[in-house]
Amino acid sequence: MTCSSLLLLVGVLCLAQLCHANEIHISPQDAPTLGSIVDQALDGDVLVFADGHYPISDRYGIWIKKNLTITAQTPGRVVIDGQGKCRGFQVTSDEVHLIGLNITNCGYCDNHGICTPGAGVRVAHKGEIHHKYVATVKDCNIYGNKGEDGGGMEFQSHGGTLEVVIVRTNIFDNFGNGMGGGLHLFGGGGDEQGVVTATIVDSSIIGNTVNSPTSFGGGIYLNPPANLNMYRSTVHANTASITGGGVAVYKRSYYQAVIKIDDKSSVYQNQPNDCYGFSSSRCGEHATSTGSL
Fold first, then answer.
1. Residue 192 has pLDDT above 80, yes or no
2. 110: CB partners within 8 A, 6+ apart
3. For the ranges 7-16, 59-68, 119-128, which has the lowest average pLDDT?
């Protein structure tokens, strides 16, 4: 599927949801009861957040269990603030669309150094092998979050196919204590094999860090079966303590990662190197595809 076809599909999916949806308008004064408001929404509803600051404190953040669109009234003017106490969004529904949000200061680490996985956004599924899940993150800023795997966002499937589309989104200055400072893509195995495919368009992944003694993938980490498509996007100035400062792939003999980076994208000036576990002409001069994690 081409990039333009994919963007058209995303638009159609969002339009189809909007055409059959009720709009629920939310203001900053509703922040203490966001959990119950989301729980009461119906499949297909659109939750429109008015401009402002939304501090949240529930450990799992805003838990989305139904097929919903969460959108800012004005893109870039809504702040979901985890206050260093909780995850931003936890998603277990078949379909979710996050649009125009700033998600920051989410996640926490306990006294033993164990941190929240997917601090800003975590989409996790364990379903039937032939089931399809969809997650869209569009016109968002994911920044200043701190977690375990996926300091910014984590997308995980232990059964079924999870299609992730990230469009015009900036993922920056997030911290991971495990794998994937900006983005963690985790495909599961076993009897109900899960596959995660992320397509990133017109987006940036900059200045993210993983910093435990065994951390890989400062910008993006893939645990196959997981795939990555990048169009007109940048992975820059991310840092990993071991290798794959930009993008790292866990090399497995029985699962493969398919990575496509178009000629208008770049992975460069990441530390200690740009790419690990695969080769691409779009990686900088320090890229390596040797060894195994």
1. no
2. none
3. 7-16
Mean pLDDT lowest for which of 4-13, 60-69, 198-207, 231-240? 4-13
Alpha carbons 193 and 157: distance in angstroms, whole number: 8
Q: Is residue 248 part of a domain?
A: yes
The dihedrals phi and psi of 163, each to the nearest 5 degrees, come to -100, 120
In a domain, 20, yes or no: yes
Query: What are the residues whose beta carbons fall under 8 Å from the beta carbon of 114, sequence distance 6 or more?
Result: 148
In this prediction, residue 13 carries a pLDDT of: 53
Q: Tens digits of per-residue pLDDT, 40-53?
A: 999 999 999 999 99
The count of domains in the chain is 1
For residue 198, how many C-alpha atoms fall within 13 Å in the half-sphere facing its CB?
29
Residue 94 placed within a domain:
yes
Task: Provide the residue range defining the domain that includes 268.
Answer: 3-276
Asked whether residue 269 carries a pLDDT value surpassing 90, the answer given is yes
Q: What is the CATH number of the domain that holds 30?
A: 2.160.20
Residue 282 domain-assigned (yes or no): no
Over the chain, what HEC string results? Answer: CCHHHHHHHHHHHHHHHHHCCCEEEECHHHHHHHHHHHHHCCCCCEEEECCEEEECCCCCCEEECCCEEEEECCCCCEEEECCCCCCCEEECCCEEEEECEEEECCCCECCCCCECCCCCEEEEECCCCCCEEEEEEECCEEECCEECCCCCEEEEECCEEEEEEEECCEEECCEECCCCCCEEEEECCCCCCEEEEEEEECCEEECCEECCCCCECCCEEEECCEEEEEECCEEECCEECCECCCEEECCCCCCCCCEEECCCCEEECCECCCEECCCCCCECCCCCCCCCC
